[in-house]
Specification:
The chain contains 12 helices and 11 strands. The chain has 367 residues and is α/β, with parallel strands linked by helices.
Length: 367
């Protein structure tokens, strides 16, 4: 069975066309039902496709004269949405010419363009950026928000929990995902008013949701594998994500330095190589690439800007699975089952600042 074609922003990311086309080609070799709309500089895309005849047969090219730069402000990028590869890829989803869009470009610009073009689905106030993170458990951890909204109230957090649980049921095959809120402690009295209000609402929803709310968790427990979905605001989520990525690089660099420090260490490396290769695979962000903007009327996936071809291929695979499993429809069904009035607006204000603030897309590469 063929899937709706996937629009790929071929110009996004640190290396642009070469890596994006090579990644799409790798995904196509793995799954021959994938079809693509490659958006960007037509001449450069055609040149890159010469090395990938299998992808060329399954792709169309949409020429885009402009590219969104990595440091461009979202407001500036929005004004050029009709001429940039990112904007035209998202518009292809809006117009029904593609089922989903993948980009490794500027996260803030991608968020702004996607929200303006596709809008949020009924019952969702703000979309959230969600990604898969490695754990010691059987499944990857789904975490959101990772940078799309710097400040969130209780209503937003409850909506994120519903969307994250729907995502977990698809990618991890879980009937009732274990959901927790990221906090500075696990006690019910800890955290901001928004966190405590969200916890109260999630407990009250109870059996109406296909999820198991397990209270609060702390950042040092994210990798343990004892929960399936962690919900937070984009400010805290982005910091936690970058901290985990930095810790992974630190461990990898420390091991590399230790194993090269002496002849005995090099001999030890040869003995322990199977274990170190497994560790390297587990910590490699390319193996967990593909952050999803949940809550939009369409599927948009953010690939890490520094992703390799393997990472891009994995992002494409995530995109295809969300199309195949009808993620958007599943979230809509969950919201309809609850009813809009069930997810009530909290009477309290947001915790850190003492007031609710407008959503703000970060300019960080959060995926």
């Amino acid at each position: 069975m063929s899937l709706p074609r996937i629009a790929v922003d071929a110009m996004g990311g640190d290396e642009g066309v070469r890596v994006m086309v090579e990644g799409a080609a790798l995904a196509r070799r793995r799954h021959d039902r994938f079809k693509f709309l490659l958006v960007g500089d037509e001449g450069r895309i055609k040149q890159a496709l010469e090395n990938h005849p299998n992808l060329r047969e399954a792709s169309e090219i949409l020429h885009a004269p402009d590219v969104v730069s990595g440091d461009e402000k979202p407001t500036q990028a929005l004004r050029r949405a009709k001429t940039t590869s990112m904007g035209l890829a998202i518009n292809a989803v809006k117009q029904g010419h593609a089922g989903a869009a993948v980009s490794a470009g500027n996260t803030g610009a991608l968020m702004a363009m996607a929200k303006l073009a596709l809008r949020t689905m009924p019952g969702i106030d703000r979309p959230a950026l969600s990604a898969l993170l490695p754990t010691l458990g059987e499944h990857d951890l789904i975490m959101l928000d990772l940078g799309a909204n710097t400040d969130c109230d209780a209503r937003n957090l409850v909506q994120f929990a519903i969307m994250g649980a729907a995502y977990a049921r698809i990618v991890n095959g879980l009937e009732s995902p274990r959901v927790r809120l990221l906090n500075i402690g696990t006690e019910e009295t800890k955290g901001t008013d928004s966190l405590r209000d969200a916890a109260t609402q999630l407990k009250a929803l109870g059996e109406d949701l296909a999820l198991s709310f397990d209270g609060f968790t702390e950042a040092d427990k994210l990798s343990r594998g004892d929960c399936d979905v962690v919900v937070t605001d984009g400010f805290s989520g982005n910091i936690a994500l970058k901290s985990m990525e930095g810790a992974a690089r630190f461990v990898a660099d420390l091991l590399r330095r230790s194993f090269s420090s002496s002849l005995r260490s090099k001999f030890g490396f040869l003995i322990s190589r199977p274990a170190t290769e497994l560790l390297k695979h587990h910590l490699d962000p390319n193996n967990h690439n593909g952050a999803v903007f949940l809550g939009l009327n369409g599927v948009v996936v953010k690939s890490h800007g520094s992703a390799s071809a393997l990472g891009v291929a994995n992002a494409v695979a995530v995109t295809a699975r969300l199309l195949e499993e009808n993620l958007t429809e599943r979230i809509e069904a969950d919201l309809a089952r609850l009813g809009a009035e069930t997810i009530r607006t909290s009477g309290r204000t947001s915790g850190r600042s003492g007031r609710s603030t407008a959503p703000a897309a970060t300019g960080e590469d959060a995926a």
